[in-house]
Amino acid sequence: MSLRRRTVLKALGAAAVGLPAIEDERRRAVVIGTGFGGSVTALRLARAGVPTLVLERGLRWPARPGGNTFPRLFAPDKRASWLAPGPVMTGSPLAAWAPYTGVLERVRGRGMDILCGAGVGGGSLVYHGMTIQPSEEAFARSMPPGMDWTAFDQDFYRRVASKLRPAPIPRDLLGVRQYRAAKMFHDQVSGKGLRPFRVPLPMDWDVVRRELRGELPPSYSTGDVIYGANNAGKRTLDVTYLAEAEATGLVHVQTLTLVRDIERAKDGRWVVHVDRITTGGRVAARKRIVTDALFLGAGSAGTTRLLVKAKAKNLIPDLPDGVGKHWGNNGDRIFAWTPPGDSPGALQGGPACVGVREPTLTIIHGPVPFPLDLGTTSLIGFGLVEPLGEFRYDAGKDDAVLYWKQEYDARLTTAIRDRITGIVGGSLLIDTTRFDTTTYHPLGGAVIGAVCDRYGRVRDQRGLYVTDGALIPGSTGACNPSMTIAALAERNMDAILPEVI
Ligand code: FAE
Questions:
Q1: How far apart are CA 492 and CA 1, in angstroms?
Q2: Residue 394 pairs with which residues in a beta bridge?
Q3: Mutate to test the pocket of ligand 1, among 125, 127, 480 (most ligand atoms within 8 A of CB)
Q4: Closest ligand 1 atom, CA of 118?
Q5: Which tens digit of pLDDT belongs to each residue from 223-281?
Q6: Which domains does the chain have, with CATH numbers?
Q7: Which atom of ligand 1 is nearest to the CA of 237?
Q8: Residues in CB range of 128: below 8 A, 6 or more apart
Q9: Is-above-0.90 flag for pTM?
């Protein structure tokens, strides 16, 4: 590929006001973000022979057995947070540090905050790894019109599964002390005559066995995975899709590259305005990258913010009115569960590995890695939520801010609570999301139908594509979203590739 580099600007003018000079660069295809959508897209472009630049704001986090790649929940350090002066995860002890390009971002909104991954691999770095395909009914009720369930079921979900190779916890591990909390929920469900299921996780369970034998320091077996899981063993995107894409030699992932704005040039090409940043967040260089094909994979919050800004500042004229709208929290709700009598114990083994499913509701046990035995664990419910949230531009911040009201999912919360009570009746249940209104599962903001066509092409904007959770209006079928986001990206790239090659 011919890479035309011209260092222009205004070098003099920029130097005069103390800003780094802006460089211009020309690329055939650019993907923003290395999460599920971005990674699938990068691999598909590579396989089609398209040289691709992938822009990622965060760092690489290479995990290895016995390594200390990620910080611990109860001993957090600067690696825990994306450019924040302390922990952003509720439950972490108070601490302070100089901001660093850590693994977890808290996007503060009005009425709801979003937690999302930052780094090569996106959300897969910090996720538990629950890799779940929704039921046909929940899929039909939550996904945009025009999605062919049979094709997802027979083809797209299978493609994702073939890469991530999800596997449930081996039955014998459910019998060990560390997995007592999961086993308690399992037995509670069975005791009600329901069928518990073991959650598919992209895990090498031998790593857990090695932890249990004392050959590796504990990470999974104490449920301490929320800032990333040490010891490797989780098939994150950096070691699956992205590793394969980079091995072709056609995909280059550029880290510490924060996209500030996207713009349509007069000739119809796409201009990506980026800051090359230091690990402390200082802008070291500015660049404009010009491309014919721009794929937005910065996640629901990242992609939506870029599009809302572009619309508000008229950087991209004629963006659809639906930009920023139809956002939801995947209908998830976290309850603290304190069973009467028996205690689930301290340092509960993970990742989350046992649940129960109904056509439009999933409940999964979430291990709590507290070092003390508080007699408590957690249950996460997923239902179908109305996508009533919206990102709006705030000129003062030059950013888009999420607006959400508790009443949007109040009825669903009651339904989830009632169902959990039906299963664990007599226990103390506390709706923790009510006090800590956050979601790990942002979805929507540039959805199919309102902003994009059926395959993620932004309407009337040739060469601009959305490829991540922003495409999906609020829910991925009453279960965790990563599997569906990746499957949708696989499907969309089938349609888009012929016009990019
Ligand atoms: P995502 O994976 O968030 O990737 C976006 C990427 O874009 C990231 O790498 C960002 O660093 C990068 N980025 C963002 N803004 C910019 C910018 N301006 N410039 C350059 N780069 C940028 O998007 N889901 C499950 O299915 N199962 C689970 O067990 C699960 N557990 C979770 C646990 C936690 C603590 C969290 C936070 C999330 C969890 N999720 C889980 C949600 C899952 O991570 C999420 O749905 C997907 O990662 C979303 O995929 P996207 O491709 O949309």
A1: 25
A2: 399
A3: 127
A4: 11
A5: 999 999 999 999 999 999 999 999 999 999 999 999 999 999 999 999 999 999 999 99
A6: 23-284+299-500 (3.50.50.60)
A7: 2
A8: 201, 225, 350, 351, 352, 366
A9: yes
